[in-house]
């Protein structure tokens, strides 16, 4: 049973209304999409681009309301959709879902006072039990003088990004803390912080994770460095207490803009979206073993011309079970968060597509 944040039971009529509000966007028995490179099932069509995360058959993502603000919606393993009782924000919300300390699904999400700036500010992490509606802060990730973002939860632990100090907000690492820790926790995991400039190595003015995932003792992150040379993205995997390993990198140069999206872990692999625009326009999923020794790619189904002209891309990916992926496929974009384009006035937005991971035509690129 779903309950409101005040822990009052949701009446059946209210739950039915929630499902009706979500309408065909979160269908209990979604219709299969037309055959294509993915052979996917359409779970939702959104007006806005959004992060998405999944676990145990659950999904959570952001939805824009009529006032232009964003809330969180969830889809249960049975296909029921419901709006989560979180305060609306001015931008899509960073949110992750995973098993909580008691094994039930737990959502961790970011609340930012200024969410529409290039780097959101005033950000702290909260936790929400989707089965009871209980909403509470995460003290270890709610320091008032720094910004904590990109939370991910697994069991009793939560991972999130956090600056090393208030004086250097653009130099950020990954902190891993106990959910019930009463004190702020400093970052302890860092990717590359320097880049080559000529014959020297210099510290990048900006570095840190732009999305991360936690599973057991493994953490993965899309790590960005900028300002010391070409903008570079790295897919990092850290197992146990060892040093992070760079699985793949993507570099922006004069001709091509490259970036990596938030990764998602399974027991043996990591998957992340990669986008390249410029002389090469390509959107695809990268799938790699945790060691990086083997790698595969999966195309979006868009041509280079479509990607360049309309901003079409795979913008997010998650895993709801070991064999089912969900991707956000952006049909068009105005360059911000909405999935619209002036050349495509009838474009409906972003699709959330469910894929059978093993059945996809993955192309081996590293053996």
TrEMBL record:
Protein name: Unannotated protein
